[in-house]
Amino acid sequence: MDQYAFLLGYFDKQLTLAKRLYGEIVNIDLTSYDKRFVFALKTQQFYTALEDLFKQIAKSFENHIDNLSSFHRELLMRMNIEVPKTRPAVLSTQSLLFLDKLRSFCHFIGHAYDCELEQEELIRIQNKLKAEFAALDCDLNQFRTFIQELTECNSESYR
Questions:
Q1: Domain that holds residue 94
Q2: Is-contact 4 150, C-beta < 8 A?
Q3: Cα-flanking dihedrals φ and ψ of residue 87, to 5°?
């Protein structure tokens, strides 16, 4: 099976999931104490859906990450790098900076057992999501087009 066709299918699945989660996240009322925890969990799911996509991209093009102690950050940084003669950058610097902040938040949520979720901080993150999602979506769709073209080139070579 063509690795790029698999990646394209996985890409579409993860992008659909991320968009659904985004739609849920931006509409959560953060003035409600209970909804803050829903926001945190869904934001973590949103980021994880994107990170899983980035893992698959890395597996399809550059195969592995050596430094497992900083795996999550290194994976994200790789998505901002063009690999000459292999693939373009997946993320713009704007999207990288946004996702790195989201990665930090998700890391905090995953390890914060005894803390309150501050409404103001969550509202700031929610507003950042609203402001940055269009650029991220554009980056991902441009990379999707690149994968689509690879898939079409490979399918023509089999004919």
A1: 3-157
A2: yes
A3: -160, 155
Which CATH number covers residue 73?
A: 1.20.120
Domain count, the chain: 1
Instruction: Answer whether 124's CB lies under 8 Å from 65's CB.
Output: no
**75 within 8 A of 55, measured Cβ to Cβ:** yes
Tokens 């299918």 correspond to 9
pLDDT tens digits, residue range 57-114?
998 887 666 665 678 888 999 999 999 999 999 999 999 999 999 999 988 876 665 5
Query: Which helix (H) or strand (E) segment is 99 a member of?
Result: helix 93-111
Strand, helix or coil at 3?
helix
**Tokens coding 59:** 């597996």
Q: Which residues contact 4 (CB under 8 A, 6 or more apart)?
A: 60, 147, 150, 151, 154
- Do residues 40 and 122 lie in contact, with contact meaning Cβ atoms separated by under 8 Å? yes
The secondary structure of residue 86, as a DSSP letter, is T
Q: Global pTM?
A: 0.89
